[in-house]
Specification:
Four Helix Bundle (Hemerythrin (Met), subunit A); about 180 residues; about 85% helix; mainly alpha; single chain
Length: about 180
């Protein structure tokens, strides 16, 4: 547990309450502060995986906690944004993204029990989805300018499309095992 990637992952979990506090602070700069905290979490998400591979410091604890930290941070941001915007154009992507995470997490767990975990390994589509998701969440949290809001919404819907696409790819890969 005492390696840099795991410390970064734990740090991401610790950032969650600070993100929430910042977002709901009754000050002008609350959304910017929350976006900066979320950005820091996104950066640590990239760094912990990179460093785990580069420094050969992958651990079972890190392999468990990293995706949990990612999902909790993203779901927290989605819930905050759904509550804040109270708009179907934000709610639909949020529900799709959360549902996909639940479905794929369950699929991976089940496939692991069958010894077929590699069948549903992370794909490039998932990485693109994450990139658009992070861009959209940061922009929508920051609420800087109406034009950026459009960028955030377009990115959110691109992320939603990639979310659905990646789910189909994972389900198709697992389909032969599912249908036994």
């Amino acid at each position: 547990m005492n390696n840099i990637p795991n410390i970064l992952t734990l740090f991401r979990v610790v950032l969650i309450p600070f993100f929430l506090i910042a977002f709901y602070l009754p000050v002008e700069w609350a959304y910017i502060a929350a976006a900066l905290i979320f950005s820091l979490a996104a950066i640590t998400d990239y760094l912990d995986g990179y460093l785990a591979r580069k420094l050969e410091q992958s651990t079972p604890f890190g392999a468990f906690l990293d995706p949990v930290a990612d999902k909790v941070m993203v779901v927290t941001a989605l819930v905050v944004l759904v509550h804040h915007y109270q708009d179907l154009w934000v709610t639909i992507p949020a529900v799709v993204m959360v549902a996909r995470e639940v479905i794929i997490s369950a699929l991976r767990e089940w496939m692991a029990e069958l010894g077929k975990r590699s069948t549903v390994a992370v794909s490039n589509i998932g990485k693109y989805k994450t990139t658009f998701q992070m861009i959209s969440l940061i922009v929508l949290i920051a609420q800087l300018h109406p034009m950026l809001h459009i960028v955030g919404m377009v990115s959110l819907w691109l992320a939603t499309g990639l979310t659905l696409w990646s789910m189909v790819v994972y389900l198709r890969a697992a389909w032969p095992v599912l249908m036994r």
